């Protein structure tokens, strides 16, 4: 026996009472009364705290969770719409769940899939990160092409399960995310909600679906972070993100690896490089530069240290769509079933860029010519809040394996964007931002 065994676990626990039995009994009864009294007080306090606490409020306060609703789906008419939208209409067609379908890239990808006869069902929470009326206009466009967008959140597992019960999707094109690098300082939890929790929620449902779908999803060029070696290659390090957005995309790539490894899900990550074009995102520079040049407002043009050029590998939306479709078409089947892996599955990552970075000043020159207006340029130091100095894609892997070959230069692509912009916001009918 060790000397430690002699010591009572609670000091004093085994001390003998010296007082008589009756005295002990009275003291015991009064202790019970005190204990009951304090228990009631304690319980009361817990109840008061619970009903006053914001987390018990049925309406979530966190803006990132605003759209997590479960009451606007279900019923036989709804199921019929879902089935009809996802019905494959061509031989060898695929049936795709497109998340983020009311978004910029999601709209274009959905239209392209539908056009070639694939079944497409959209899912989007229509959050107000940027003007939701633009998302609703994109939805109207998709409706005209026969694509139905279910309004819901990727964190709503009950909804996702229901969708997989109604349709045996062969593929998921996962584009729903909280985008933008600077907004992460304002609303960091929205990035965790959509890009991490939402991704896990989606993969959980995909891994249990029978059959499991193949998943193609949007990562980002921002995973290259502070790297200085150019052009960025898929083999380069991606462990020094410059923004929370980039960190959540990098986390997504690691999460994808896990689900591929454990459950046999076929997963392809696409690192998009600054996508632009008609129906684009109002938070992106080419979009709000156009708006502000037309309004005669000054535009911020960032400059790196020692007057260094800030440049982006701008990629036109149609080229990105071709890359997405090629990734879907070359995706192998997932190998698991019922949540169990049956064999190794495909895991891929590709850069989808344009291979020719353009200085932001040149972007403004082109916009000035197209808009026939002079921009009021406000040269500023590049803030250290997420933006990197340049992006430049090496696309040889995508070229080899997806036959990806971007064909639209910035001048041609911006011309199409400006034409759309002027038409969409014509005559001040709709105000951009
Ligand atoms: N556009 C680019 O330049 C670019 C560059 C790199 C990566 N990406 C990635 O490509 C994807 C598409 O980008 P985009 O430019 O079309 O952005 P977008 O913001 O226009 O589209 C994203 C859509 O997802 C929806 N969404 C967000 N969180 C959701 C949630 N929790 N549940 C359901 N829907 C949700 C939004 O309402 C939005 O309509 C994103 O994953 C983005 O991170 C885009």
UniProtKB/TrEMBL annotation:
The chain crosses the membrane at residues 32-51. It catalyses: UDP-alpha-D-glucuronate = UDP-alpha-D-galacturonate. Belongs to the NAD(P)-dependent epimerase/dehydratase family. InterPro entries: Epimerase_deHydtase, NAD(P)-bd_dom_sf. Homodimer. It is found in: Golgi apparatus, Golgi stack membrane. Residues 96-333 form the NAD-dependent epimerase/dehydratase domain. This is UDP-glucuronate 4-epimerase. It is an enzyme of class 5 (isomerase). Its EC number is 5.1.3.6. Keywords: Carbohydrate metabolism, Golgi apparatus, Isomerase, Membrane, NAD, Transmembrane, Transmembrane helix. It is a multi-pass membrane protein. GO terms for cellular component: Golgi cisterna membrane. It holds the Pfam family Epimerase. GO terms for molecular function: UDP-glucuronate 4-epimerase activity.
